[in-house]
Amino acid sequence: MDQQKNHYRESGVDAARGDELVEWMQNNGKLLSTPNRFGKVIDGIGGFAGIFSLAITKFKKPALVASTDGVGTKLLLGLSTERIENIGQDLVAMCVNDLYTVGAIPLFFLDYYATGHLMPEQFKSILSSIKLSCDLCQMALLGGETAEMPGLYAKGHFDLAGFVVGVVDEEDRLGPHRTQLGDKVVAFGSSGFHSNGFSLIRKWLADKPRPDLIEKLMTPTRLYNAIPELFARRGHSLHALANITGGGISGNLPRVLKQGLNAQIDFKKLPTPEWMKDFIKSNDVSLHDVEEVFNLGVGMIAITDAKSLDDFIRDAAELGLEPHLIGELVAGTSQPLVTYD
After folding, report:
1. Per-residue model confidence as pLDDT tens digits over 84-140
2. Distance (Å, rounded) from C-alpha 262 to C-alpha 268?
3. Distance between CA 35 and CA 107 in Å, rounded?
4. pTM of the full predicted structure?
5. Helix, coil or strand: residue 218
6. Over the stretch 216-225, which tens digit does the pLDDT of each residue have?
7. 136-189-250 Cα angle (round to 5)
8. What architecture (CATH level 2) is domain 176-340?
9. Residue 19: CB partners within 8 Å, gap ≥ 6?
10. Which CATH superfamily is domain 2-172 in?
């Protein structure tokens, strides 16, 4: 067996190092702990598959919800600036924020980390960030996969993918079926560009370097982990949620609107931070030109009942979601659209 491992090492794969990292994970109690209220890990990191015991009797008609995503080319900016310590939050947020849009509570998360050559400190930094983000969302890190693939990835480079599973009561799920004429459109502030549009951002930086903005650009994607509490408080008046990722508001909001409804939005009310406006305009581009690329400071959009708007805004603000009223639902064509004032 040792001889086979030596041959494998000669090809660029260090299986022994991979075994050491698995042992590190197994010996790290913080990585294996689970704060989830609706189940517990029976068998997680180290096995061929993770096992999660469900305890979801509070749901009348429980339905499992799943989502998967990655970080995209934000990874390349993080590598070039040596700012990858929070990239695990980007991964978790890109997955779990999608889960929140149907009113689901996350149960567990799995990650996939692929690299050209395993670098222990890089791996530990990323996994620690993933686990911290899982804890913030009160979900278990059930397991994952680590792959060393020299030739496919340059030394030091890597890619990430994430997978999350949650649960929602089928009768209470959010979505287009609940949206109504006259509903109000409320934006929740983003932490920046999140993890979308970085191919364009990197092109701009190549033409006009902005070292003063790297910290803001690498701010991790916001975790909207307060949404389950908002749903618990305002579930009757919260009709739909849209995660504003690639495609911007006009590309994502129509996905949660009933046919025959349009979202009419006041563009001036978008909570776009000044640094983001300045960065975009400094590249001779208007905000309208990149509305379908960036979130423009809007990380999540809620559709809420007009009669309950004041209470909804109050609760969302108390939970730190930074709510901004930006529009309402109006009659439209058969296919939902976003229109701007």
Report:
1. 999 999 999 999 999 999 999 999 999 999 999 888 889 899 999 999 999 999 999
2. 18
3. 10
4. 0.89
5. coil
6. 999 999 999 9
7. 115
8. Alpha-Beta Complex (3.90)
9. none
10. PurM-like, N-terminal domain (3.30.1330.10)
